[in-house]
Amino acid sequence: MTIYRILQWLKDLRLVSQTDMGAGGMVYQLLSHPHHHLICLTCGAVTDVDDAYLDDLRRKLGEAYGFTARIDHMAIYGQCHECAKG
Questions:
Q1: Which of 6, 17, 48, 77 is the most exposed place for a label (fewest CB within 10 A)?
Q2: Cross-strand bridge partners of residue 77
Q3: Is 69 within 8 Å of 58 (Cβ atoms)?
Q4: Which residues on adjacent β-strands are paired with residue 45?
């Protein structure tokens, strides 16, 4: 098997997550627990975000679309507090 097939197999087993981290490229991480990142487009700072922040999104997607969202590792882009100041 190629490394890409192995990575896909590990993702299917929910042992590994894949996230596009922008300029940092694709990141693969062991999925010990779902977690997420805020990435500053100005300075590149990365802030960890607790998975509980996405619980409401998962619930709303289920109610509105009957969709069970699997959000294991998400990158959200914007500006950090310091860069937004000025």
A1: 48
A2: 39
A3: yes
A4: none
Which helix (H) or strand (E) segment holds residue 28: the answer is strand 26-30
Q: Please state the separation of Cα 38 from the chain's center in Å.
A: 9
Residue located via tokens 């997550």: 17
CB atoms within 10 A of CB 36: 19
Alpha-carbon distance of 15 to 65, in angstroms, equals 27
Half-sphere exposure (CA, 13 Å, Cβ side) for 79?
A: 7
